[in-house]
């Protein structure tokens, strides 16, 4: 899409008022942003101040992103969007009815974990790595391993795969969409308690996580926070997470294809 510039010659001088959004203007936004950046530099930020200033700048930030502000520029200006908590908080501002997203995500997904694992057994080429991880794990770690495995296997239920979503090693995928790079080159580590990974969006490193579940939930948030369309190769999985797990309703959402709803019916 190209920008169109129109030049207009006026014979009189008209004072231009700086735009405002919900009582904020460029000057007040700059002041809020300075506070946020100052807090981000601290070892222990005051999250009461952070949430207040993120709320004050929210409508302005939404307009900036809608007007085409890049991911790189957005996270430079609002650095707390480079944190898992910051992303979840922002999604909750966008869709307040979601409530506590992480809690809803965990509770909503836990109930389908057994079915996902059952259905993925014959579809997922990574299933053997999961079984080997369980054999070597402590009993108290098994529920968390099952949860992570189900998150990783979910796309296979919808006849999608994770090749362009999760990768082994710090190899940059040629994709502007959210991607998770496991820093370890062993898939078994993805199911284990600690699986260091990097979340990237539009080739920009947002942050590093210690668990694949946190990485996947954060990646889901970025689609809403940065106003990104779902990629074709993961669309059905993301629509399921949006509607059935996070229970987020977006204007203009189309009915899911019958082939997708059939798979969803197998999960419940």
UniProtKB/TrEMBL annotation:
<protein>
    <submittedName>
        <fullName>Sterile alpha motif domain-containing protein 3</fullName>
    </submittedName>
</protein>
């Amino acid at each position: 899409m190209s920008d169109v510039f129109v030049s207009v010659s006026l014979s009189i001088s008209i004072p231009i008022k700086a735009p405002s959004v919900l009582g904020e203007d460029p000057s007040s936004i700059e002041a809020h942003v300075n506070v946020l950046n100052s807090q981000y530099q601290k070892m222990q930020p005051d999250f009461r101040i952070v949430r207040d200033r993120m709320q004050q700048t929210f409508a302005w930030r939404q307009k900036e992103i809608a007007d085409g502000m890049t991911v790189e520029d957005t996270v430079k200006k609002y650095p707390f969007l480079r944190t898992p908590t910051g992303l979840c908080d922002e999604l909750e501002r966008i869709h307040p009815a979601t409530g506590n997203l992480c809690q809803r995500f965990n509770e909503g997904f836990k109930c389908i974990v057994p079915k996902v694992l059952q259905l993925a057994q014959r579809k997922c080429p990574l299933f053997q790595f999961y079984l080997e991880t369980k054999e070597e794990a402590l009993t108290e770690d098994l529920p968390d391993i099952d949860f992570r495995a189900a998150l990783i296997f979910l796309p296979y239920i919808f006849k999608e795969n994770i090749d362009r979503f999760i990768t082994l090693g710090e190899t940059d995928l040629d994709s502007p969409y959210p991607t998770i790079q496991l820093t370890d080159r062993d898939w078994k580590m993805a199911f284990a308690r600690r699986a260091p990974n990097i979340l990237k969006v539009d080739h920009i490193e947002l942050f590093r996580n210690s668990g694949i579940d946190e990485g996947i939930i954060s990646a889901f948030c970025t689609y809403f926070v940065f106003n990104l369309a779902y990629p074709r190769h993961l669309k059905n999985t993301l629509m399921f997470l949006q509607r059935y797990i996070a229970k987020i309703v977006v204007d203009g959402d189309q009915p899911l294809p019958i082939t997708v709803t059939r798979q969803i019916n197998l999960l419940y």
